[in-house]
Amino acid sequence: MTLKRKKVSVIGSGFTGATTAFLLAQKELCDVVLVDIPHMENPTKGKALDMLEAGPVLGFDAQITGTASYADTKESDIVIITAGIARKPGMSRDDLVQTNQQIMKDVTTEIVNYSPNAIILVLTNPVDAMTYTVFRTSGFPKERVIGQSGVLDTARFRTFVAQELNVSVKDVTGFVLGGHGDDMVPLIRYSAAGGVPIKSLLKPEQIEGIVERTRKGGAEIVNLLGNGSAYYAPAASLVEMAEAILKDQKRILPSIAYLEGEYGMEGIYLGMPTILGANGIEQIIELELSDDENKALLKSASAVKAVMEVLA
Ligand SMILES: NC(=O)C1=CN([C@@H]2O[C@H](COP(=O)(O)OP(=O)(O)OC[C@H]3O[C@@H](n4cnc5c(N)ncnc54)[C@H](O)[C@@H]3O)[C@@H](O)[C@H]2O)C=CC1
Ligand SMILES: O=C([O-])CC(=O)C(=O)O
Fold first, then answer.
1. Which has the closest alpha carbon to 118: 102, 141, 84?
2. pLDDT recorded at residue 3
3. How does pLDDT run across 195-240, given as a tens digit for each residue?
4. ipTM given for this complex
5. Strands 172-173, 78-81: parallel, antiparallel or unpaired by DSSP?
6. How far is CA 106 from the centre of its chain?
7. Which residue's CA lies nearest to atom 9 of ligand 2?
8. Which residues form the Lactate/malate dehydrogenase N-terminal domain (predicted)?
9. 146: three-class secondary structure by DSSP
10. What's the CA-to-centroid distance between 57 and ligand 2, angstroms?
11. CB-neighbour burial class of residue 288 (10 A; exposed 0-12, middle 13-18, buried 19+)
């Protein structure tokens, strides 16, 4: 009997791509194909082989292939795009738009060619605009082109709340919506520790500090690393989304989704509460927002639109 495992291709074998590949294999969620440009073929093969050789020690069975050939990605269930350049200290994510836009187009053309039924998860920054570029280039239905930001931003928020309260991160819930930039919208009303709203556990200035640190969470790591951006938490976030899809879990997770009237917006990809399952984004959940929350979401959306205007 041949057991057919699911197949996930990860495009870009840099920090985020390699970490994502390793976590996917370690959790035995699928076989993994790690792809990079021809110039990076040997290092990509080397990383894949090194990961594979961790299998006997960690006790996982999954194939991990490193390649520069998209033929190896044929019939992937999910393709995760991490290809492109990352920012350095002093840069904004939006500074990456010109270079990464072209990379998204090139990569997406190959994905469509070899995996016309795949679900695409996009990580590359500026991620809201890059997800839109992949959507337009692929011609895929909107539910099969999804961006990652909110799982990561919410994970950072939860980390900081747990630290402030000195409680387990497992008991802290939250929801960060909007674009993946300094105007992202942590929804305090929907944030709790052990089911207790954080508003009744923390002082307003403590909450304000956590919101600010969450908004600047990417830059905090960029400044510490000095030559690149975060990858452990971003990879873990991609894997949580991929797992929800591969196992048809119907998880309620924030995703960058295409809006067609939801929250009064049209023609834009933005971080939203969604249900993720085998079909990709199965629903965008429309929360009741207060006037202030709505205003903050619109401000964040206009920052994303400004980047979209630069797109060719
Ligand atoms: N949305 C989010 O929450 C996050 C987004 N990012 C973004 O993810 C992207 C990747 O970050 P890292 O992995 O740290 O960068 P990295 O520089 O370590 O890796 C990027 C890889 O992409 C490869 N690449 C470039 N052009 C390619 C092409 N046409 N086809 C295939 N591979 C190609 C490069 O050779 C390199 O190996 C960046 O744009 C970064 O800003 C990173 C963290 C979080
Ligand atoms: O900050 C960056 O450039 C990478 C990223 O999106 C994050 O870590 O949130």
1. 141
2. 66
3. 999 999 999 999 999 999 999 999 999 999 999 999 999 999 999 9
4. 0.99
5. unpaired
6. 20
7. 218
8. 7-147
9. strand
10. 32
11. exposed
